[in-house]
């Protein structure tokens, strides 16, 4: 089954995990246990198991697995290095990404309404006579 026929990315990644598992178990040149693969790749066995069962893996452990199984060169077809972008295409991309600088003082901010609170009357509190004071 072609990976590009899957509806979701999760399905595609799970299929990749199953394919790596099938290669690990069935290809006589690569036949090894999960423990052996994990040891050769320098990762945990649980990472290998999670990848093979659910397709859950980060890029670095995936590269380590592919290297340990001598499959890393297959990435050359996935990401070819001889793709050249023309200078005109680069120029167009740079123009599209260019962000016009905006000066903060050239932006008109809306006026925030203010509210003046009425002044509160000052209340004078009479001094309480101190009974101990003899004056």
TrEMBL record:
Q: Which residues form the HTH cro/C1-type domain?
A: 29-75
The Gene Ontology terms for molecular function here are: DNA binding
Q: Which Pfam families match?
A: HTH_3
Looking up InterPro entries in the UniProt record yields:
Cro/C1-type_HTH, Lambda_DNA-bd_dom_sf
Spell out the protein name for this chain. Answer: HTH cro/C1-type domain-containing protein
């Amino acid at each position: 089954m072609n990976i590009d026929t899957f509806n979701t990315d999760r399905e595609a990644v799970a299929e990749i995990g199953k394919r790596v598992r099938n290669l690990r178990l069935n290809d006589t040149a690569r036949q090894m246990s999960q423990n052996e693969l994990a040891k050769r790749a320098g990762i945990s066995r649980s990472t290998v198991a999670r990848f093979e069962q659910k397709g859950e893996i980060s890029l670095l452990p995936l590269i380590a697995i592919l290297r340990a199984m001598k499959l890393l060169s297959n990435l050359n077809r996935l990401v070819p290095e001889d793709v050249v972008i023309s200078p005109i295409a680069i120029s167009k991309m740079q123009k599209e990404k260019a962000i016009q600088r905006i000066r903060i003082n050239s932006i008109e901010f809306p006026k925030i309404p203010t509210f003046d609170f009425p002044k509160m009357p000052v209340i004078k509190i009479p001094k309480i006579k101190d009974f101990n004071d003899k004056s």
